[in-house]
Amino acid sequence: MQNRDECKMEMKGIRLGERQDLVIVKQVEFGVYLAPSAEKEEERVLLPQKQVPEGSAIGDIVNVFIYRDSRDRMIATVREAKLEMGQVAQLTVAQMGQFGAFLDWGLEKDLLLPFKQQKGNVKQGDKVLVSLYIDKSDRLCATMNVYNNLRTDSPYSRDDRVTGRVYEMSDNFGAFVAVDNLYSALIPQKELYGNVELGKDVSARVVQVREDGKLTLSVRDKAYLQMDKDAAKILSFLEERGGALPFNDKASPEVIKRETGMSKNEFKRAVGRLLKEGKIAITPGGIQETGSNTDTNVIDRKENIKES
């Protein structure tokens, strides 16, 4: 009986986790054996009888996917796997187990996503973005570390609107995004506004197509368009707070971002627009909507907005 190392040597020409054309070199009761070629008959893998195409004969070529069955034996299937080596795909968590999450990838045996390869709180029913890798035991597993398998040949250009999945958050770099679950993109830290969350889809604008093909994104519109939205947002805040805000454009960037989701520059531009239009007035302690009956002294409420 062969040990595992000998088995790996034998299977060198048969690629785990990939679709490939193999030749039928032997027929048995329980299926057919496939090999890379008739000359490499010793390197073979079983295609179970229930999956053998009708009328198949020795010498025929069959296109199959190679994986391991429930007993960790290399096996072939004519079924379409939802994910192959080098690809990225969104798969559903079928169930949680002792060693991780099991993903439905279209084959009889679910695909293991080990706990150490997960990002965020993964639970049954979730749709997760993953790639394939071969672990130390020569088994196929899933990983949510998809960066190296994302493509850099997107069809998008500057100012195009795109949608993608946030697959990693970095304090240094920002939010890493898989546009269309295919293409490599980044929302830089300075562009992170609003609800950009790990594992969630985000809509963004392409601000740059880098020389390496990767995309730089922003969740904000162009400045002249964003200014209108930000101005409307400030008016909405004023309405919600009785016509006055307990801070103005002299507040720290941290306070402004925490309270409004805007950068200080964006906040100042929007405030300037509203001042020019006569819709607001700046008070010693904040901002007041023009025509509001609110007491202009909003300093008393400023103590609730602590500098961070």
Furnish the topology, listing elements before pairings:
Layout: H1 4-10, E1 19-28, E2 31-35, E3 45-48, E4 61-68, E5 74-77, E6 89-96, E7 100-104, E8 111-114, E9 127-134, E10 140-143, E11 161-170, E12 174-179, E13 183-188, E14 201-209, E15 215-218, H2 223-240, E16 244-245, H3 253-260, H4 264-276, E17 280-283, E18 286-289, H5 299-302
Parallel strand pairs: 13-15
Antiparallel strand pairs: 1-2, 1-4, 2-3, 4-5, 6-7, 6-9, 7-8, 9-10, 11-12, 11-14, 12-13, 14-15, 16-18, 17-18
Helix pairs in contact: 2-4
How would you characterize the overall build of this protein?
The chain is α+β, with helices and mostly antiparallel strands and about 300 residues long. Helices cover about 15% and strands about 35% of the residues. It contains 5 helices and 18 strands. The protein has helices spanning about 5-10, 225-240, 255-260, 265-275, 300, and strands at about 20-30, 30-35, 45-50, 60-70, 75, 90-95, 100-105, 110-115, 125-135, 140-145, 160-170, 175-180, 185-190, 200-210, 215-220, 245, 280-285, 285-290. The strands form 4 sheets. It has a 5-stranded antiparallel sheet with strand order 3-2-1-4-5, with no helix packed on it. A 5-stranded antiparallel sheet has the order 8-7-6-9-10, with no helix packed on it. Strands 11-12-13-15-14 form a 5-stranded mixed β-barrel. A hairpin with a 2-residue loop joins β17 (about 280-285) and β18. α2 packs across α4. The protein is elongated. The chain starts with a helix and ends in a 6-residue tail after the last helix.
